[in-house]
Amino acid sequence: MAFCLTLRMKCFSQLTRIYSSNASNFVGLHCIPAIAMATFQKNTGDMFLPPVLTLADEGGMLNRDLFVKTILLPAVRFNKKLTNTCLKALKPKAVAHKPLRNSPSDPEEKVLLLNPEIVSSDNVISLGEAGITFLEEHNLESKFGDFPLELKYSDWTSDEVLRSLLPKGVEVPTGFSRIGHIAHLNLRPEQLKYKHVIGEVLMDKNPGLKTVVNKTGEINNEFRFFNMELLAGENNMITTTKEHGHSFEFDFSKVYWNPRLSTEHTRIVGMLNKGDIVYDMFAGVGPFAVPAAKKGCSVLASDLNPESFKWLERNVKLNKINTGSIRTYNLDGREFIRDIVRKDLVKRAEEQNTCCDPHQRTHVIMNLPSLAIEFLDVFPSLLQSIPTGVRGHVQLPTVHCYCFSKEVDTASDVLRRIEAVLSHSIEGALVHDVRDVAPNKEMMCVSFKVPAPVIFGCSTEDLYEATEAPPVKKSRTE
Ligand SMILES: C[S@@+](CC[C@H](N)C(=O)[O-])C[C@H]1O[C@@H](n2cnc3c(N)ncnc32)[C@H](O)[C@@H]1O
User: Which reaction does it catalyse (predicted)?
Assistant: First the structure.
């Protein structure tokens, strides 16, 4: 055994010498153009990175043809019938990305590219026992050597390409929101000089992307959509996107849509039961309303932006929602509650005398975080004028009120502000952190049942007739 091993080691060193002297005979170095030879790198950590090309100035163009580079990689050539055997012996030593290539000179041959950090073309020992045995058994000793691999624009990721193009000190954009065929960026001031190139690279590197836009200035104050400019691709802002199996179509330049809210939409819809009543006060294009209706809730949804309303209606159809389960409105939130919702609550309370589902619950969704707390002023005395005999049948709505807080104790801050508008304490409120929208600014959702004295505009003692059963039981908000 010891003898065999010594023999093997002797053999290795002989082979090593052979390979060293023959290295340049392998895989046709003659076919590499002189200009590319000058760019050869070997065994350096960043040999796989693109060449460093600097965009000289504002408006610097993206020239994809400049992204060419040839590197030398250790490799083994073999008859393609041996592919499986070769992979078995050498796969652990191969490069991670596309290790198996066609031979440029012989259609019957394949080339396995090896990781230059593990294998050195002038040292056969670096192939390891399995690799050497493979070479020996198939007489492939002369086919181990350097392989000139040409890398081009399509071989690098957007991050690598942009890193090579943007000057030092300008960070590569780390991400973007994807809305159907649109990428939405929020570039930093120092990146703006390179905005078109950034847009083009992202479009090249993300299949299906046809439009790249950048947020300009602040969000539109009233309807919450972003002002944006086109960076690359076609100027088509009408897009279709999916959220948890539901399709939404809209004009991204005219309505609010934020893919970062998808988890929140699902969380709220997850709290709803079939048969629940849902009033969506700031419905947008329907990311709460559509899945809620699809789940079997009775939905009334409104948005003041005529464009949102138009697409909300479109999305009801697109998702084949039974028109009996959803009604849509183009109203101001307060008007929606004071008129439509009020009437609906009263009608349902009156009907509860004959039909009553004890599990049915009523929800009001208020996703306009910058203002929703102020809009809570619609609830005090909303049902003051209804007969006391009907009050016991009103399902007190659970409100899901979105808001922002910049305070250290965000939960206390939002609860205090809500109670101030209602002039009443809210028991059992559930405060949920939705996301950080900026450093020290949290978006939250507070779910609570509107207290009976608030909605009926009277003291607890005067709420119900003496003969009446106690009001709706206190129930969970989640
Ligand atoms: C933050 S977006 C939320 C949209 C949708 N609910 C979502 O989760 O994506 C707020 C929506 O409120 C609408 N809006 C703004 N002011 C309004 C008002 N006074 N009454 C009704 N809707 C309003 C905007 O048009 C926008 O669609």
Answer: guanosine(37) in tRNA + S-adenosyl-L-methionine = N(1)-methylguanosine(37) in tRNA + S-adenosyl-L-homocysteine + H(+)
Domain termination residue (choose one: 155, 171, 196): 155
Q: Which of 312, 368, 435 to mutate to test the pocket of ligand 1 (most atoms within 8 A of CB)?
A: 368
Same domain, 416 and 440: yes
Claim to verify: residue 195 and residue 109 sit in the same structural domain: no
Question: Are 460 and 427 contacting, i.e. CB atoms less than 8 angstroms apart?
Answer: no
In a domain, 246, yes or no: no
Pair 278, 361 in one domain: yes
106, part of any domain = yes
For ligand 1, whether the C-beta of 256 sits within 6 Å is: yes
Does the pTM surpass 0.85? The reply is: no
Residue 413's pLDDT is 97
* β-strand partners of 232: 212
Where do the DSSP E strands lie in 51-171? 68-79, 100-102, 109-113, 144-152
Same domain for 409 and 323, yes or no, is yes
Domain region containing 387: 256-462
Q: Which long-range contacts (CB under 8 A, 24 or more apart) does 260-267 make?
A: 260/177, 260/435, 261/287, 261/367, 261/434, 262/287, 264/434, 264/435, 264/445, 265/291, 266/291, 267/432
- Which residue among 268, 304, 443 is best mutated to probe the pocket of ligand 1, counting the most ligand atoms within 8 A of its Cβ? 304
Indicate whether residue 309 lines ligand 1 (CB < 6 A). Answer: no
- What pLDDT does 174 receive? 86
Average pLDDT per block of 10 residues along the chain, 478 residues long: 34 32 36 31 65 64 89 96 97 93 94 95 94 96 94 93 90 93 95 93 96 84 85 97 97 95 98 96 98 97 97 98 95 98 94 65 97 98 91 93 96 97 96 94 97 91 61 46
* Residue 257 CA to ligand 1 centre (angstroms): 10
